[in-house]
Amino acid sequence: MALNQEQKRRKKFLVKKGSFAESVSNSDTVDLSEEKAELYIGTGGHIQVNLFGGSTVTLKNVPSGTYLQGIFVTRVYRTGTTARDIVAIY
After folding, report:
1. What is the model's pLDDT at position 13?
2. Residue 34 — very low, low, confident or very high, per pLDDT cuts 50/70/90?
3. SS3 of 28-67
4. Which of 2, 5, 57, 67 has a CA positioned 20 to 30 A from the CA of residue 73?
5. Which residues share a beta bridge with 49?
6. Range(s) of the domain holding residue 45
7. Distance in angstroms (rounded) separating the CA atoms of residues 62 and 6
8. What is the pTM for the complete model shown?
């Protein structure tokens, strides 16, 4: 689910991270709705992502319940991702 217009407007005025979140729909072609996000992994596995800096990496064997703090991503790929219940946190 993408952020609605009101959430995007309010987000500009907030300084703290973690004010908004959305469920991730894995896609090989579409970026997340916001420029960069940290991820929470509900059900563990591998995660292939585009990092904010431009590189593509696969994070292997990420355990369930992991918060990937400080790793900013722009896309979560369908191909190469076995983890589920992923939440993008902005």
Report:
1. 53
2. confident
3. CCCCCCCCCEEEEEEECEEEEEEECCCCEEEEEEECCCEE
4. 5
5. 57, 76
6. 18-89
7. 33
8. 0.81
Q: What are phi and psi of 7, to 5 degrees?
A: -65, -40
Residue 33 lies in a domain: yes
Whether 47 contacts 58, CB under 8 Å:
yes
Task: Answer for the pair 80, 46: CB distance below 8 angstroms, yes or no.
Answer: yes
End-to-end CA, the chain: 13
| Per-residue model confidence as pLDDT tens digits over 42-77 | 999 999 999 999 999 999 999 999 999 999 999 999
Tell me how many domains the chain contains.
1
φ, ψ at 8 (rounded to 5°)? -65, -40
In our burial notation (b when 16+ CB lie closer than 10 A, e otherwise), range 21-32 reads: bbebebeeeeeb
Partners of 22 in beta bridges = 88
Residue whose pair of structure tokens reads 């407007």 in the numeric block: 9
